[in-house]
Amino acid sequence: MPLIPGVGAGTLLESELLADDRSVRIGAIYRIDYHEAIVLTHDRWKFDAGGIPQYTFLLATAQDIDSDSHDDDEVLLLRVEGTAPLTMDSDLHAVREEALRTALSQNEDPSPSVVLDVQLDPFTKNRVSFTGLKCQILGTFYEDDVNGKKRIEFGADVDNFYATSTYRVLKPTGKGLSAIASYLKPADGDPVEKVRIGSVRYSSTKRRAKAAKQHDAVVDINVHDMIGHKTGMFGMTRMGKSNTMKIVVARTFMVSERLRAEGEPPIGQLIFDPQGEYANPNAQDGTQIAAIGDKHVVIYAFGGGDASKPNVRPLGINFFDPAQLDAVKGMIAAQLSDGGSDYVRAFVQADLKGDPVAGESSAEGYKRRARAERGRVMLYGALAKADFPIPQRDAANPQWPWRAWVAMDATLADAILKEVPGAVIKARNGKTVGIERDKIIDVCEWIVAQEEGGTGSSIKGFDSFVSGDPYKSVKPIFTQSNGGKFVSGYTKLKPLKPFHAPSSASDFRDEIYTEVTNGHIVIVDLHLGPDKVIRQLSEDLAARILEKQTETFTSGKEAPRLQVVLEEAHNLFGTQRYSDDLDVWVRLAKEASKLNVGMVYATQEVSGVAHQVLANTKNWVVAHLNNTKEVRHLSQFYDFGAFSDAIISQEDKGYVRLKTMSSPYIVPVQIDRYGLALVNEAREIAGYDPLPQAEQA
């Protein structure tokens, strides 16, 4: 049962923690202070309790549940850290040694089986079976009345202690252990929805826990702890970080759908998937996040756009669509930025959109738009030279074939048509022409040749065509010549080809933002793209999310609630990067909370993540780390230092130390496997039929 107000057999502490079916006595307090307790126990009691591994939770109480007097309704929560010497230990060791020496002197056979297996008398054997357990006091459970109802509270210290002989010590089991592991410190007004994340696991060796049927005490968390806050997943590769992230994503989706059903804004989730394991089934899980349902999970992937999979969209933009020009120009500028030459700076500053400016006349607006169109023609020519596939149909009007529309004098259009047959068609009251897709390079080369040969000036409208800054800024990219010097030009654009989606009718970044604000799970499948392209795409997308959220926030409205899931966080939030306030990932880490953006990030290197990010991480999931440097860094937070040796030595997949925002202490947990059962639970909430076992992949 959860630790909530209710009526049990006696007090809440007794019914929830101390009842016979929830705990078993294993000893008594031997010595105690405000931070540490030494527990006296016996080999037989440990055996009957199913063993006492390191890190076991214990309860110490001064209550006498067999009487009607409850003079101290408090229960101390202890955690076993190791062993402790007892006062008589040296004497008992001497007795044991003397027994062995006697056996050796009285037997002619000195073999180990004769000497070491000597039987002590029952009295001595019983005395040497007592041991001491060194325990850290985690805090105190106590009852409180809130609005006329009793509930269990937890304080992370001790406000009093009694003579040690009064304390009974118990090992919580079953529902009692689950109540402790799943305890959430009450926070009136904050949303609470408890969901299973796994089961309590004290040690790598599980034989005794299984034999005693103590291996599946449920651990619940408040899923709202993860929403809108930073959650860190720490551990080596293949230790279960992604599995835990999938569980969090699925549980968050369920909350979102319940909110939607209640008329509340849903919670969108954006997953950057560098290995493709969220979008595609894998042997580890047998299923994937995408199995939740194609109406609620959208995948953006390189080469996407298969009509048979309506939820798989192309990851890219149409470089030949004027409506997507902002994104196109941004990507090209970033690709050329390492050039640092004047032609690159000119391109960055060029106006290729031609949007009207407030206060200018209609004639001035026409000139601005015409210059921009002429610059775009040269850009399209450069893209075609870089082997970018030109779309077949117009993005805005798919019923039309694609053409590069540009303002041009009719005389110039006739000259082009004469020299490049079939290149242009006249339209739009004779002032605009459309350049055919298969003639774009030929037209651009003809214009450049006329300009450089000095013959173009005799053609009406030619000088106007080539005089604008947009045309001049793009020309070096097309010609690979700037001031008589060779430049890389269009060849530098070739790495951007994976971004190009000829069939895309809008900027994928805006599409993704719309999807996540509608409460959908969006998986950006990056496992097939080149590293540089993936990095640039991810940064552009994160920047657009921040831009959109900031626009809403600064307008005085409540920004939509979003969750961002990131892998390899040490590459994004490193200490050196964190000093750069313009870095998009740094901005995301710093501004996420106020913009209603939660973050779930995973890393193998705790020390690689900036201290400021770690200090603002509310939820910690710590799996196996393989070196002391990382564990020492981890030890700066909460009391993870107490688990240092185990974190290094225990390499069991999914075995973690869990600290959530609502839980006041660290809980050792075996995380559940993400699989078909959870997928079907999410599908049911979304209104889908369950997937049968054979179709889970």
Uncertain runs: 1-10
Q: Structural class, judged by helices and strands? A: alpha/beta
Tally the helices.
23
- For the biggest β-sheet, the strand order reads 9-8-24-23-22-10-21-20-11-19-12-13
Distance between the termini: 35 Å
| Major sheet details | 12 strands, mixed
Shape descriptor: elongated
**What is the mean pLDDT?**
84
Radius of gyration: 35 Å
Number of strands: 24
Q: Helicity level, as a percent range?
A: 25-40%
Q: How much β-strand is present in the residues?
A: 15-25%
Q: What are the SSEs and their pairings?
A:
Blueprint: H1 12-18, E1 23-32, E2 36-42, H2 43-48, E3 57-61, E4 74-84, H3 89-106, H4 112-115, H5 122-128, E5 130-146, E6 149-155, E7 168-172, H6 174-181, E8 194-200, H7 207-211, E9 218-222, E10 230-234, H8 241-261, E11 267-273, E12 297-301, E13 312-314, H9 325-336, H10 342-349, H11 362-385, E14 403-407, H12 410-419, E15 424-427, E16 432-436, H13 440-453, H14 462-467, H15 469-479, E17 481-482, E18 485-486, H16 508-517, E19 521-525, H17 531-554, E20 561-566, H18 575-578, H19 584-591, E21 597-603, H20 611-615, E22 617-622, H21 628-634, H22 644-649, E23 655-659, E24 667-671, H23 676-686
Parallel strand pairs: 10-21, 10-22, 11-19, 11-20, 12-13, 12-19, 20-21
Antiparallel strand pairs: 1-2, 1-7, 2-5, 3-4, 3-7, 4-5, 5-6, 8-9, 8-24, 14-16, 15-16, 17-18, 22-23, 23-24
